[in-house]
Amino acid sequence: METDEKQLTYADAGVSFEAESESISRLKSLVKTTYRPEVLSDVGSFGGLFALQTYREPVLVSSTDSVGTKLKVAFKVGRHDSVGFDIVAHCGNDIVVQGAEPLFFLDYIGINKVEPAVIEGIVSGLSEGCREIGCALIGGEIAEMPDLYAPGEYDLVGTIVGAVERDDVITGSEITPGDYLVGLGAVGLHTNGFSLARRILFDRCGYDVDVYLRELSATVGEALLVTHRSYVKSILELRKVCEIKGIAHITGGGLPANVLRILPDGCVADIRKGTWDIPPIFPFLQASGNVEEVEMYRVFNMGIGMVVVLAPDAVDAALASLNASGESTFHIGEVVLGDKGVQGVGS
Fold this sequence. Notes:
Layout: H1 17-32, E1 58-66, H2 70-77, H3 81-96, E2 101-111, H4 116-133, E3 136-144, E4 154-165, E5 180-185, H5 194-204, E6 212-213, E7 218-219, H6 220-224, H7 232-238, E8 246-249, H8 254-260, E9 267-271, H9 281-289, H10 293-299, E10 304-310, H11 315-324, E11 329-337, E12 341-343
């Protein structure tokens, strides 16, 4: 049947091949800066190829996560590299707690409309994060879906794969009463608690991202977009000098939920508040939102990004290694005998 209607194209449906092609050409050089000798494929391959080498009995360790609603802040500020770094740091921390060396990373960007400068910003952050931990950015996906994502918005998800020798996996099973809890300092919210932080700062207080907060010595946007600290290098160096009995990455659920994940039966993590430095953003959020202390410890990291469990005779060597790696370290408590649990925070 004849018709005078215009012939439809994919571009008419809101998807641009040209924009995606330009984005890919921009990011190729960035991605290649992360490559390790084990990478056998090139940008644009259907699948990323990685030759697993040097391990006697390798155990692959993987993790997938997203940046969450921190992205909403990135949209408001118009800065996209920091969230790229965030997702690599978060995923890397998640596997190093089990002793794994990060090997390669894959990303997913679902976006309303492909804007090459935005994609380049995200991949710039991803590449920086991968170089930081020695991980290859081996592949990814850019999906333009105008009917799914709001204008100016995107989602960012990452998957990391690492490896550790079977005999070297850190499980927490060897933790016993008398062990020390050493906290590694956080630099801000990292990537958790942003739904509450945004509700406090944007909805209750009515701030915009460019409002300067004297209490934080930064604008709202700057304070919220402080990147997630990567502890990967520090932990891998620590493994060389002492036995690590357990490590908890303090993400969603805060100290109570995450430390609990690594404890064996009969062990209680007795955490002493006041033994570490709390970054000013946390008391500011608590006061501005009238948030109960128990809720603060359940939602935010409260200044501790990781908890390392060590035997007493390993503490001195461990602190020397961690401090040499640039970490702020705090003796935040001990493991005591009792029904499996965490006490002192969040209750």
